[in-house]
Design brief:
This protein is of the alpha/beta class. The chain contains 10 helices and 11 strands. Strands 10-1-5-2-3-4-11 form a 7-stranded mixed sheet, with helices on both faces. The chain has a two-stranded antiparallel sheet with strand order 6-9. It has a two-stranded antiparallel ribbon with strand order 7-8. It is globular.
């Protein structure tokens, strides 16, 4: 059940952004401040924990192995709604190697003949997490989702995202109007960047890769802007009023807090899965996908991809 009465300093740095990493830092700071009571605002994100497995055990202090998380941007225009899973990213973190990998899954991927993104809208976040976990073959500890309104509000309140756009993006459908170069994106601009697929010959494949790139860029932004305790706590105070936790505890999230301190954004790989053909817009898994997942599964670091 949702624990809205215990909404805490926990969030992503931009959907479908690097949520677990920043969320863990938020929890650590919140605990260090003496567990202050915070007013609850509009929900930006929801985070749920899936049942633990032997591969996601924790010891006191640092997590004792590779961790896998799911970050999902859904297409609901209702601020309180959860729609189709249209931005799907599995993040693997290796604390020992101080490295991470983002596996980007296009929304039209249909491993069982039907689009996997519909599971979120029809069956909920837990069922969707199970479907993605089975598809990739990794145990997913936490999953996080946000919708259009949550994304826009969050990015605006945090002051936007500075990003280097490498290709022209001029698409009326997603409202992009970007030439190559550095841009400061507000919430609406960041949403447009995340949604644009018509500016690229590869369509949704390029869009999905760009979403992963935005995750990494947002983490870089947060680290660069929040270099002192005062600025960090201010950002955390803004974020903490807007997240709902489900089926999880402060203790477990606190144990993840050191992850954000171990990962340099430059050490994060961003890879889109290979896809094949299919009927309509459905995309079958492509050649080489089993090897990619195996390379990702063992230690979250890609040695051969």
């Amino acid at each position: 059940m949702a624990r809205k009465s215990r909404t805490v300093l926990l969030t992503l740095i931009g959907p479908p952004l690097c949520g677990v990493l920043l969320a863990s830092l938020v929890i650590a700071a919140w605990v260090a401040m003496g567990l202050p009571s915070l007013a609850q605002g509009k929900t930006w994100f929801r985070i749920t924990q899936v049942p633990p497995t032997a591969q996601t055990s924790f010891t006191s202090g640092q997590p004792d192995g590779v961790q896998f998380f799911l970050v999902v941007g859904n297409d609901s225009r209702d601020p309180a709604g959860i729609g189709l899973g249209d931005a799907i990213h599995v993040i693997g973190v290796n604390p020992g190697a101080k490295a991470a990998t983002i596996i980007d899954i296009p929304r039209d991927t249909a491993p069982g003949g039907g689009k996997i993104n519909s599971v979120l809208a029809n069956q909920g976040l837990s069922a969707f997490t199970g479907a993605i976990s089975n598809f990739v073959g990794v145990p997913i500890k936490f999953s996080i989702t946000t919708n259009f309104a949550g994304f826009v509000d969050m990015v605006n309140e945090l002051g936007g995202i500075d990003i280097n756009i490498t290709q022209p993006m001029h698409d009326p459908d997603s409202a992009t109007a970007f030439d190559p170069g550095m841009h400061h994106l507000n919430g609406e601009g960041a949403l447009a960047f995340s949604r644009d697929r018509h500016s690229f010959s590869a369509g949704d494949i390029s869009r999905t890769e760009n979403q992963g790139y935005l995750i990494i860029t947002a983490l870089q932004n947060f680290q660069a802007r929040n270099t002192g305790l005062g600025s960090v706590l201010h950002a955390l105070g803004v974020l903490g009023r807007h997240v709902v936790m489900e089926n999880t505890s402060l203790q477990e999230l606190y144990r993840l807090s050191r992850l954000v301190l171990t990962i340099d954004p430059a050490a994060i790989r961003n890879v889109v899965i290979p896809t094949g053909g299919g009927s309509g817009s459905n995309l079958s898994p492509g050649p080489g996908i089993d090897a990619l997942f195996a390379d990702f599964r063992d230690d979250a670091v890609l040695q051969s991809h």
